[in-house]
Amino acid sequence: MKKTLSIVFLAIIFWTGFANVIVASNVESSLNEETLSEAEVSSNTSVVETLEGKVISIIDQQETEDGFSQTLEIEITKGSQKGDTVTVENSSTVSLTSVRYKISDKIQLEYNELNGQSYYFIVGYVRRGTVILLTLIFVAFVVIIGGLTGVRSIISLVLSFVIIFSYTLPQIYNGKDPLFVSIITAVLCIPITFYVAHGFKRKTTVAVISTIVTLVLTVILAQLFISATHLTGLGTEDAALLLTFKGGDIDVKSLIIAGIVISVIGVIDDIAIAQVGFVESIKKSNPKIKTEELYKQSIQMGRDHIASMINTLVLVYAGGSLSTLLLIIDNPKPISEFINYEFLVDQIVRTLVGSLGLVIGVPITTFAAMVAYDDNIPKEKNEAGF
Question: Is 302:369 a contact under the CB 8 Å cutoff?
Fold first, then answer.
């Protein structure tokens, strides 16, 4: 029982995206097996085009000893073959990890050619429409409930993605130092997104300064523990795959720190703004409050915020990693050996260093806010800065 609890605790505190991706890819892979095996086709073909289609008929479907098989009639709805109808085999050797398609299902296919013959492989469902709908619902609720602040937060979010996709990712992919690029990203994201989301106020300025200081300390901690644990950056399958494609052009070890920096920006935003707000509210309600008492009350609110934030993060990680938890519990090796695996240590370091940044951000922000609000709180109309 003690060993099981230890394993569960360790599993909860690390990111498990890579394992979930592996499981998801196994569930969604349904490849055509007309005349050649999957290995033969994939090793001798290249993707000519990605198509989209709609299942209009199930010609045949039967159970087999290893699972089931389907013969589907699909109408191509997107691509150079739009309007054509093709017949595709969908089968799996393990029924629990296969996908049974139904009439009207929208699916994505890969069209390949081999020795002059055409082959169609089912990749999975077309999910774009549902994703767009969910995004619109999210935006609508943020705007309806959040009002003008909600609108500004959406704009802030969009700007963050613009910076990451237009600058951060291209620069890293082209061989620039990930740590340097992530720092530039932080310098761009923090003031832009903070001021857009929260306005040009003294509170926002204090939060920006506090976040930058916290970020510097987090980077130092990340470098320290990444070196101490001898991480190479190859603890996940996607990092190893990236290194295979790009060779030595990308420093995957620095990529760990870059990921921590970018993730901390979003986490500290919530802590910094809330903590400055606490100090501001207390000072406004009691302008003559002593410094010691102001710090005591503010830090207590910060502690409550930390407790709820960490609890939320742990439960989110646990909820997204149930399959990995089962794999770890089923592992025959003792925890003292299992904890040495890089893929596990990589995620623990990322999570704990990021969480440390969240924790140390509270006293840093509280102190900065106390300095900024040392005088009486000015009226809102004068709160454009210092």
Answer: no
* DSSP string computed for 91-160: EES-GGG-----TT-EEEEEEEEETTEEEEEEEEE--HHHHHHHHHHHHHHHHHHHHHHHHHHHHHHHHH
What are the φ/ψ torsions at residue 48 (nearest 5 degrees)? Answer: -80, -40
Q: What is the DSSP letter of 218?
A: H
Locate 46 and state its tokens: 């290249």
- Helical axes 17-28 vs 237-246, angle rounded to 10°: 80
pTM: 0.69
β-partners of residue 223 are none
The tens digit of pLDDT for each residue in 224-250 reads 999 899 888 777 777 777 777 776 678
Q: CB of 370 within 8 A of CB of 279?
A: yes
- Long-range contacts from 331-337, C-beta under 8 angstroms, 24+ separation: 331/7, 334/3, 335/3, 335/6, 335/7, 335/10
Measured between its terminal Cα atoms, the distance across the chain in Å is 57
From residue 241, alpha-carbon distances to 229, 233, 234, 273 in Å are: 22, 12, 9, 38
Q: Is 247 left (phi over 0), alpha (psi -120 to 50) or beta?
A: left
* Dist. CA 323–CA 85, nearest whole Å: 38
Across-strand partners of 76? 53
**Are 85 and 76 spatial neighbours (Cβ–Cβ below 8 Å)?**
yes
Q: Which residues pair with 121 in a beta bridge?
A: 110
Using 50, 70 and 90 to split pLDDT, how confident is the model at 318?
low
